[in-house]
Amino acid sequence: STQDELKAQVGRAALAYVVPGQIVGVGTGSTVNKFIEALASMRDQIPGAVSSSLASTERLQALGIPVLDANEVESLAVYIDGADEIDGKGHMVKGGGAALTREKIVAALARQFVCIADASKQVEVLGRFPLPVEVIPMAAQRIARSFAALGGEATLRLKDGQPLVTDNGQHILDVRGLRITDPLGFESEVNQWPGVVTVGVFAHQRANVCLLASPAGVQTLLF
Ligand code: DER
């Protein structure tokens, strides 16, 4: 099956984790877009969704699924999102879609994080995918130098030749050449560098379940 069909398979499989009567947390990306399409079939069974990006909000609303403010909910039963990489403990690199800040906020509200991905996202050690980091623009160069001291090469993410501006009005650095052997420690360390809004390592908000699509079908990994 094509990559697109694999994403559709795993997007549909995630419906099993949506609790009727409960608000669902929704991530961002092309795999999540397939989940959103599948979720439309349950729109009368849920009060709505908390969204992690303007892009996902638009897609949810276009399918008649109410989007609720994160401040309106105490907690969520489940958060469904993709990943750029996922290791053997459910730690992820995320942010390829530039939504990492709100993704981490909504993930923190959820009791269960269900990652939906294709098998190409599985890695032994995080860091092969350029690590996204959302930063306050004025801090970008100092943060890039701090990554260089760790062996990473940070570049400003551009869109149409200009620095990409996130939903939160900030910029994104993509850091190549890192080998993140201690995701929890790395996330804690980078989080407290001045000007870092969010680092795209999801270790404190790791996945509890990963639905992994491969030509052999959907595998369920528990962490
Ligand atoms: O940007 C993100 O965090 C997305 O969830 C990304 O990690 C996965 O996007 P994809 O499903 O389009 O590969």
TrEMBL record:
Q: Which gene encodes it?
A: rpiA
Which family is this sequence assigned to? Belongs to the ribose 5-phosphate isomerase family.
Pfam families this protein is in?
Answer: Rib_5-P_isom_A
Name of the protein in question: Ribose-5-phosphate isomerase A
Q: What is its EC number?
A: 5.3.1.6
Q: Name one GO molecular function term.
A: ribose-5-phosphate isomerase activity
Please indicate if the UniProt record lists Isomerase as a keyword: yes
Report the record's Gene Ontology biological process terms.
Answer: D-ribose metabolic process; pentose-phosphate shunt, non-oxidative branch
Cross-referenced InterPro entries, in alphabetical order?
Answer: NagB/RpiA_transferase-like (IPR037171), Ribose5P_isomerase_typA_subgr (IPR020672), Ribose5P_isomerase_type_A (IPR004788)
| SUPFAM superfamilies in alphabetical order | D-ribose-5-phosphate isomerase (RpiA), lid domain, NagB/RpiA/CoA transferase-like
Q: How does it assemble?
A: Homodimer.
Q: Which organism is it from?
A: Xylophilus rhododendri
- Catalysed reaction equations from the record: aldehydo-D-ribose 5-phosphate = D-ribulose 5-phosphate
